[in-house]
Amino acid sequence: MPKQFYKHKVLLDENLPPRQMLSQLNAHFDVKHIKHDLHHGGMEDPAVYKLAVSLERIILTINAKDFRPLLREDAPGVIGIPEAWSTTRLDTKLTALLKHHSSSYFRGRYHPLATTDLEEEAA
d(Cα 48, Cα 62) in Å, to the nearest integer? Predict the structure, then answer.
C-alpha cells in the first residue's frame, strides 16, 4: 500500500527566494515566505522560530546553525539549505525530501539537505 501524501507547511527564511520561484515545492505544499508572504523581513532568528512554531511550519533556511540551538522536541523542525545551490536544484531536492517523509520525521529535528552538512555533523 503506498504511503499517504502529507501536505507539509513550510516557512522560507528571508535568505531564500520567494515561493513562486520554487514551483514544484509551491505546487505540492503549503509554502510561505517570511518576507514576501508574511511581511516579517528583518526579524531575528529566535522570533522567526517562534513564529514558525506558532504557525506549525518547518523552517527552510541557509543559516541553519542559528536555528539549531532553538529546536524543541514538540515543535516543527529545520531544514538546512546549501547556499550555493541553484533554485532548480533546491526546488527538486526539497520537494523530493518532503514528499518522502511525514511530519514526525521533521518534528524537533534538524535535517541538512546536502551531504556535506551530514559529514560536518558526524565530525
Answer: 13
Contact 29, 9 (CB under 8 A): yes
Which tens digits make up the pLDDT trace of 24-81? 999 999 999 999 999 999 999 999 999 999 999 999 999 999 999 999 999 999 999 9
Neighbouring CB atoms inside 10 A of 62's CB total 16
Confidence class of residue 3 from pLDDT cuts 50, 70 and 90? Answer: low
What CATH fold (topology level) applies to the domain 9-122?
A: Rossmann fold (3.40.50)
Residue labelled with grid coordinates 546549501: 82
